[in-house]
Design goal:
Elements lengths: L1 E7 L10 H7 L4 E6 L5 H14 L6 E6 L10 H23 L4 E7 L9 H11 L2 E6 L4 H9 L10 E5 H7 L7 E5 L14 E7 L7 E6 H19 L4 E7 L2
Parallel strand pairs: 1-4, 1-5, 2-3, 2-4, 6-7
Antiparallel strand pairs: 7-10, 8-9, 8-10
């Protein structure tokens, strides 16, 4: 019998871990840490640092693995993602079976919260289909919380709804109907450029919650180029970039 524990670790700041998350990491026998490749290995390094800092019981076995590259040749986006998740699940199971052939508790440190634009739960469900495995999820601070904290800005206006979406949706469908405030994640192409910029405020943050956090706020028409240039410099300096932004119509 295996228990897979998905632990939300916040957005890169060890202080984001909840007491529940720390307790869970001190329970596990095995921790899987993904390596996303050259230029992003400091993400794996940060996970190692968190484990070294908060695990005070007997040290679990830690196994680092390379994430497979998503095949972009398939035309259908959803099929590409599903095939990629299948491949990741197979790699997880290979390492779990090799390290813990009989049973045990396996931990996986999830950036932010496992429920928010993260597929770790979906990948874990594939393992449940092929093994005697139970699943537990420990929530974590989200990048949305870190974004609004960085700007000291509320997420919603009084009695207003908020739409959480992706850069792909902004590019393909434009501003969501009936939304006054949108939060945009997973946007590697600065999709706010595709919108009419008049009457929109933007709150943009990269590396939210981390020591190298960068934030820009202002009218979209005035700060678009600043965000694009700042983003490019940060990616060049660090080799990777995670960013998120909130936009709100003002008219």
């Amino acid at each position: 019998m295996f228990e897979l524990i998905l632990v939300g670790i916040g957005t890169g700041n060890p202080n984001h871990l909840t007491r529940e998350a720390v307790a869970a990491l001190n329970e596990v026998d095995l921790i899987l840490i993904p390596n996303k490749g050259t230029g992003k290995d400091d993400l794996a390094g940060l996970r190692h640092e968190i484990c070294a800092e908060v695990i005070t019981t007997a040290r679990p076995q830690i196994v680092e693995f390379d994430l497979p590259v998503r095949d972009e040749r398939t035309a259908d986006y959803r099929q590409r993602v599903d095939d990629w998740h299948d491949a990741i699940a197979d790699i997880w199971w290979q390492h779990i079976s090799a390290a813990r052939p009989n049973c045990g508790k396996v931990g996986f440190l999830v950036w932010g919260d496992p429920s928010l634009y993260d597929s770790t739960i979906r990948i874990a469900a594939r393992l449940q289909d092929k093994s005697n495995l139970s699943l537990r999820v420990i929530p974590g601070i989200t990048s949305i919380q870190a974004l609004t904290a960085a700007h000291c800005a509320p997420l919603n206006e009084i009695n207003d709804a908020v739409t959480i979406t992706t850069g792909r949706q902004i590019r393909d469908a434009g501003w969501p109907d009936s939304a006054r405030t949108v939060v945009v994640m997973l946007d590697g192409q600065c999709s706010f450029q595709s919108l009419p910029s008049d009457g929109i405020q933007i709150w943009w943050t990269a590396y939210a919650g981390m020591e190298n956090e960068i934030s820009v706020h202002g009218p979209l028409a005035e700060v678009t180029e600043t965000i694009i240039q700042t983003r490019a410099k940060a990616r060049a300096a660090h080799g990777w970039l995670m960013d998120i932004y909130m936009m709100r119509r003002t008219v």
